[in-house]
Amino acid sequence: MDIVIKGMGVYTPLGANDEFFLNIFKGKVAWRKITKYENKWKIPSFIACAFKSQISFKSMINQSLRMACKDANINKLDDKSTLVCFASSNGLNDVFLSGFDDRVIQDSIPIKMLTKIISKFFSNFKIICFNTACASGGDAIAYACRELELKKYTRAIVIGGDVLSPITASGFMSLGAMSLNGCKPFTENRDGMSLGEGVATLILTNSEMDKSGYASIVGIGQANDHYHITAPNPQGLAVINTMRKAIEVAKIKSNDISYINAHGTGTKLNDAMEMTAFHTLFAHLPYISSSKGQVGHTLGAAGVIEAAITAVAVKQQIIPPLAIGNTKVMEKSNFIINTGKKEHIKYALSNSIGFGGNAVTICFKK
Question: Which ranges in 208-267 belong to alpha helices (H)?
């Protein structure tokens, strides 16, 4: 497998494209106190990575896709066969929750909304939607890579997006999984996850078509441990299998991995499980970080946003930091704290883990 990332558009509260990656490597965060659900939905205030002002999900997708096309030098209506993979957990909740008339219901169908946006840039495309909870983005990338490897399409566009939603906030609060102060993944006193919102778009092509780009995707691993509807298997069986498979598909060894962008939600269960998986698979831990301490957990978008971060890290040869301030990290770990660091990255992994035991790992090389 050798799939090239030709262009990307990342649109988040932490910034867009160049500004976003600069802030990531500097260890900046974008936490805000969310109070807008207190009256209507009776949801207590919480900390999240959110836009300062209200912006529609459709506008976010349009901005992200436009940036990605510009980045990939697609400047006019393109007729090459294109696969569009859309990953989201909330979908169009912001539209759906505004009312229940027929217009709203029709506008809440993702494929209809996406067709209007995609047709501005491409004339020959097929759309497939993915919702495997927080593994959605990784699964969408995996599917796109396999279709390109089989040469069914000239290019693939993977869009991952989610917005803040009272449904999601109340759900994670009911699980006792929300942080009160902004999540700090892989720290000893971590107290839960923090929600985020944003959209990322990746434009992919087979390396036989074009070898230039940010990085190459050379391995994919997918698994499900069918352990529990929400809780991860403490032994990390699914993510051990996905990392092992991605490394196998890339035809490399575990000690070739220089960096892992972990799922790292900041919950007690996830981070302990993922660290167990790392120690099981790697005799010597690669550098590890979690971007969720900076952009929050963007659910269906997380796998695509974090794939973009990993690809840029590989291209620029910078290890992203674990942005945790002065908090003490878990023992027997390998993190760059608060500010990114120049290091040689030979190969890198990005993990996505979702409810129901879903897990995906993507392997990148420069």
Answer: 237-249
Respond yes or no: is residue 134 known to be catalytic: yes
Distance CA 55, CA 34 (A): 15
DSSP label at residue 112: H
Tell me if 360 sits within 8 A of 135, measured CB to CB.
yes
Q: Is 363 a catalytic residue?
A: no
Active site residue 228: no
- Measured from the Cβ of residue 155, the count of other Cβ atoms closer than 10 Å reads 25
Question: Largest Cα–Cα distance of the chain, in whole Å?
Answer: 57
Task: Tell me the Cα Rg of the chain.
Answer: 19
| pLDDT band (50, 70, 90) for residue 103 | low
Q: 3-state class of 53 per DSSP?
A: coil
Q: Which of 49, 134, 145, 363 is catalytic?
A: 134
Among the listed residues 298, 297, 284, the one whose alpha carbon sits nearest the alpha carbon of residue 185: 297
- End-to-end CA distance of the chain: give it in Å, rounded: 14
CA dihedral 57, 61, 62, 63 (to 10 degrees): 100
Residue 322 CA, distance from chain mean position: 16
| Cβ–Cβ < 8 Å for 354, 134 | yes
Of 49, 69, 145, 297, which is the active-site residue? 297
Neighbours of 275 (CB within 10 A): 20
- The pLDDT tens digits for 250-302 are 999 999 999 999 999 999 999 999 999 999 999 999 999 999 999 999 999 99
Residue-wise pLDDT tens digits, 176-218: 899 978 999 999 999 999 999 999 999 999 877 677 899 999 9
3-state DSSP call for residue 148?
A: helix
